[in-house]
Amino acid sequence: MSNLAPPCGPGSALRSGREDSVFSTGPESIMARLVMKFGGTSVANIERIRNVAQHVKREVDAGNQVAVVVSAMSGKTNELVAWCREASVLHDAREYDAVVASGELVTAGLLAIALQDIGVQARSWQGWQIPILTDNAHGSARIESVDGSDIVKRFTEREEVAVIAGFQGVHKETGRVTTLGRGGSDTSAVAIAAAIGADRCDIYTDVDGVYTTDPRIVPKARKLEKVAFEEMLEMASLGAKVLQVRSVELAMVHKVRTFVRSSFDDPKNPTEGTLICDEEEIVEQQVITGIAFSRDEAQITLRRVADKPGVAAAIFVPLADANINVDMIIQVVSGDGAKTDITFTVPTAEYDRATAILGKAKEQIGFEAVEGATDVVKISAIGVGMRSHAGVAAKAFKALAEKGINIRAITTSEIKFSVLIDKDYTELAVRTLHSLYGLDKV
Ligand code: ADP
Ligand code: ASP
Ligand code: MG
Q1: % of the chain beyond a pLDDT of 70
Q2: DSSP letters spanning 67-96
Q3: Which of 185, 190, 242, 276 for mutating ligand 1's site (highest number of atoms within 8 Å of CB)?
Q4: With a 6 A CB cut-off, is 183 part of the ligand 2 pocket?
Q5: Looking at the domain 14-280, which fold is it?
């Protein structure tokens, strides 16, 4: 992202000396500039939107300048996506964006109305009106620049809250509407926070922070006070959908103080959420910080592939050319020096396409059979402490074996390891690792 410079930069009077005031909400608090983002369940109906308006009013009454970013009402984006598929399986990606971006437009307008109704000056903004300029990767566009100057001008001239439709932008050359990928309103919020030089970006959702694992799966999950950027990046990319991966990348690069907190708290008495921050800010480091899981993974095995140079390229180049992301890869050493098996994973949504591509390239690759499974799940353990501790993953393999859980594939890197297992064991495996690494709430 090239141009997210705030109109009045980090050195401005607005930002200086604010670190202590991030959660003080009384009238005596020093004015801050905030971005408040509300996800789908937080704006699910008019009553919930009124509740959001109360959260915004609290911050405005405290003297803060506020830009709000909203998602579509919960379920709306899924419905719009399904309509596109129903209209045509092979729909035009530009028209898909025109359709799915509309969900956020409704909530932005409704929240502006709800704010005006309780005496808060507010105006809604669509992505192109800001503008939020993106590349032209329709369906998963990247933000290239955000012009925050009009919003900031209206903060000072009119004391007006900006209510911005999340998830969308406009392609800088064609002027067509783009969307930022599922969960993209988080990224809109952090990008706007960077562009207007916000003191913090609050991501309000249906849980009151980032937990050691999905609290809906493990009731013993613990809320984390702080999570390091690197850990949050891994957790998000390995399945914890509480934040979109790109929003964490942006927060890290632009040093946006980002909190995850609940819109279901009493608007008059909110609790603190989880701060995503630099590793150095975290005093008590655990070896493992969190467990994530992703059901969005499918396994493909090519049986009896020739064990010779060039075979891996023959398999993976056509998949890369088709924009299919390959994640875990295992090649078995051949017993006879001639044939081997190769197993790898692709996103579930790409499974049919991947097997079709491999089927076409069968002659060229030279394998006997292609086998696959979509009933698998990838479970990952994440923690910066893994850098300085040995044997962390080995402990997990033993614990999973003791529960009779078979591991199909393994990958490790500096601060995480992942295992691929049968989907039926998802909860058991997540709970086992959660207890194993001492993450259970006591
Ligand atoms: P929103 O609609 O507000 O964007 P999301 O559904 O995208 O909300 O993200 C919030 C959900 O993320 C929670 O309801 C929770 O089930 C899930 N989640 C997954 N992993 C975690 C985690 N480690 N901590 C908190 N929530 C998590
Ligand atoms: N409404 C979009 C989605 O459901 C974007 C978002 O909520 O962040 O993916
Ligand atoms: Mg989300």
Answers
A1: 93
A2: EEEE-PPTTHHHHHHHHHHHH-TT--HHHH
A3: 242
A4: yes
A5: Carbamate kinase (3.40.1160)
